[in-house]
Amino acid sequence: ANIKAYETLTNHGTALDAIELGINETELDPTIRTVGYGGYTDHRGEVTLDACIMDHLGNAGSVVYLKDIKKPISVARKIMENSQHVMLAGNGAQEFALKHGFKKENILHAQSKADWTSWIQNKPKLKNLINEDNHDTITMLTLDSNGNLAGGSSTSGLRYKLHGRVGDSPIIGSGIFVDNSIGAAGATGQGEEIMKTVGSFLIVEL
Ligand code: ASP
Predict the structure, then answer these.
(1) Could you read off the pLDDT of 111-166 as tens digits, one per residue?
(2) What is the pTM of this model?
(3) How far is the CA of 146 from the centre of ligand 1 (A)?
(4) Which of 44, 46, 80, 118 is the most exposed place for a label (fewest CB within 10 A)?
(5) Which one is catalytic: 41, 137, 142, 155?
């Protein structure tokens, strides 16, 4: 992701382009188990994706509980640039994506399905899910040659999360925050904690 983002910046791409193209690399890589295609499932065995993006002018786009679309950060950017809204969720987000040229694809990788199958067979206790070992996300911040910042985040969220759970990653101010006059921050970690402090916003503004 960093290599792609760096290439984009050196080829005169904007900070926002670098975020999108960089994060796409990770979203499409099935060996990365916490982002996009190949991500871990929720407790019902479904992969649901969250992402958000923000530019130097304070424009923002976000997608939550997105199913069967491989590049959630690109959907978030489309929402920012081609709708009057900041955040779309679930079926509505998918409908928007399909209308804007994205394809419906299977994002449940065989390995994620196999992992979920063996997890559920052991009758796991959902209350033990939130711990330091169960997390990861991509969050990326870029600065281009015009001095403009951008930020983005993309995740499949907490492994075996409760169906419908959304973490901090797609929440502007929690997962990422950009204030071009100050700086930018992005978070990974336990979304339930990050959301309660609007962590990225707090870091930047402090
Ligand atoms: N923050 C992400 C979430 O809670 C997970 C992570 O970064 O590890 O969904």
Answers:
(1) 999 999 999 998 777 666 666 666 789 999 999 999 999 999 999 999 999 999 99
(2) 0.95
(3) 31
(4) 118
(5) 137
